[in-house]
Amino acid sequence: MALRVLHTADWHLGKVLKGVDRTPEIADALKDHLRIVREEKIDLVVVAGDLFDRPRVSAEAEAAAFEFFLGLRELGVPALVISGNHDSRPRLEALAPLLELAGAHVRGEVRVRGEGGAVRRDWGEAALLPFLSERRAVKAAQLLEADEGSWQHGYSETVGRLIANLTAGFGPGRINLLVAHLTLAGANLKLGGGEFSFYVGNSYAVEPDRLPTTATYVALGHIHRQQKVSDAPAAWYSGSLVQLDFGEGEDAERGVLVVELEPDRPPVVHPIDPGWGKPLRTFRLEPDQLDRRLDEVENWPGYAKLIIAGPANSALRERLYQENPHLLEVRFEAEAPDPLAEAAAEVESLSWPEAYERYLREVRGLEEAGELLAAFRELYEEGHASA
Ligand SMILES: [Mn+2]
Q1: Ligand 1 geometric centre to CA of 51 (Å)
Q2: Same domain assignment for residues 40 and 81
């Protein structure tokens, strides 16, 4: 029995880049997914995490996801979905029973094999591994061992043991699919600012030999550049749908993968990149080139970032912004010697409590940090009242 799979991930619905909501571009890409599902006679859609850019997104962003799954239901095509580090795990779990009605099986929280971490289908078995933060990896290790305080293993080892648990039912003569949101060591991390560096550092990377050779195919999410990261078993990142950030190369591979699976055979993988979303390009100009070369920026069909050599000139900056609505950032080279400036620009739109919440979630891996957040908010408001 052959199975035709559409592997997609890292939608990041709700993404806002320098004040521009990218949701309509991503929603268009998802509508085009339905065309691909029809034309390619897809049997199963796999979504490997990061459906949303933040735990709370706009109604438009949620609507785009729901319309996609309802569209799949109309086509009679089921889906397997896991949460990524950007998704709200509890929220996806809460939506799971509703999405099940549309034929989409959603796993928000990490579960072991006997408790929903693996699902049986007529074609074989799928193991589902949502993103696991380091903090939660400690809990997962305890779950596996039923032995408290035995956290002496690294992240890679814990995820490896979890994968071994989830894929224990993989056997010959059937299709065995592993779906995971993680960083595989050795992957090409040239992905820009879309992911925090904490997640691509070594402590969060999983060694490729943790992937079971019994897997027919491993569908990965997390890294936004489309790439094959393992031959045996075959493991791919499908990449993001659109160029989400100026740091993500304009020419980097992205899109979706159509994967033909058969038991006991290597998969056949077809990359598909219809060129979704607007391209992002960074232009670098000398001040004396502005008159001559500004039309390159003006005629650019996507979003542009302009770096001008020399000292800051706020009048020029204002004029450029007003004349070029698709120009999202103007920076003068002499004003940005700080390597942290980029990251700071990312978060400067957030309030302090929002930034702290993001830190707790992204860096510390705390999702239910209600008490800490409340305490922070109280202190913050006190400080501000007296200031
Ligand atoms: Mn992502």
Answers
A1: 8
A2: yes
